[in-house]
């Protein structure tokens, strides 16, 4: 297991890449996408860098489009592909904000960022397809693409659960989200045909467990089924089944899924296995091609480092958010309110209208 000093060094490496306006790109001067930025911000909160994490979430809130979406990529604060909008980007701020609340209890941040979460998840529900899955992107005419991606949908399942928890916190119930959550969960558990076939990617293997849609014995069975296909002993998890390439973020996300399935020892083993990607300053290389003994791509990304920090927190129980990814009961199910505080307790929550 990583020591506290090692985790702090990794958090410092992430913080060193943050721009002065709060943006958290993959690396300084590089691309930024909203999903990976949220993951990096969560790692900052784990490491006690709460002001930096809050600055990242406020950066995202300022750049949200009127329809609730974000661009798929930014560079230097500008949209790279202005017409693109992906559902997983629209939803993931909810996970980051709920995680931050669990870490810090920062009511001001929740109240100020809640409208952006609400717009994003309202867009996600509008992109839901008749079978319960959510389309992966918006077409130019504003309708949802009818292609659904399993990994993105599993992430959105967690985002909707976090959104329901935040809605209870703010006293603004969102029944449409709860209905969307029910349909999406059924699709993830029982309707594999609803999703495009990307089974060569390890994320499609473990993400339904990581996102909380598949739990208990089915989760354990799912992880066992493709273990030999994706896990390389002593190195970590492959990104894709047909390439000799292990990646740090996928390995640590697998560790989170293993912990959620009640296999913490196996999770610890995976975090230990990927430490060959650790650099001297605490940052992490993205991946490793073992036949060539080569790091590829030649980059050390904030989101890879963040996945390590989140796995370490989940396995150590160091923060109040440590159970977010690993405890199936840590979030309310559809139709329930969080019991963290009385509904509507947040400053300014009562009576706030929808945009």
Task: Tell me what the structure shows.
The protein contains 14 helices and seven strands. The strands form three sheets. The protein has a three-stranded antiparallel beta sheet. Strands 1-2 form a two-stranded antiparallel ribbon. Strands 3-4 form a two-stranded antiparallel ribbon. By secondary structure, the protein is mainly α. The termini are far apart. The protein has a single domain (4-316), classed as Glycosyltransferase, CATH 1.50.10.10. 49% of the residues lie in helices and 5% in strands. The model is unreliable at 334-355 (pLDDT under 50). Residues 329-355 are annotated as: Disordered.
What labels would you give this structure?
single chain, two-stranded antiparallel ribbon, 355 residues, globular, Glycosyltransferase, Prenyltransferase and squalene oxidase repeat-containing protein, 6-hairpin_glycosidase_sf, mainly alpha, 6hp_glycosidase-like_sf, disordered C terminus
- What class do helices, strands and sheet pairing give? mainly alpha
CATH arch. level architecture:
Alpha/alpha barrel
Poorly predicted regions:
334-355
CATH class: Mainly Alpha
Provide the CATH topology: Glycosyltransferase
Residue share in helix: 40-55%
Main β-sheet, spatial strand arrangement: 5-6-7
Q: Report the end-to-end length measured between terminal Cα atoms.
A: 46 Å
Gyration radius, in Å: 19 Å
How confident overall, as mean pLDDT?
Answer: 93
The fraction of residues assigned to DSSP E strands is under 5%
Biggest sheet character: 3 strands, antiparallel
Would you list the SSEs in sequence order as H and E?
A: HHHEEHHHHHHHHEEEHHEEH
Shape: globular
Please give the domain count: 1
Instruction: Work out the number of β strands.
Output: 7
Tally of separate helices: 14
Region (Disordered): 329-355
GO biological process, one term: carbohydrate metabolic process
Protein name: Prenyltransferase and squalene oxidase repeat-containing protein
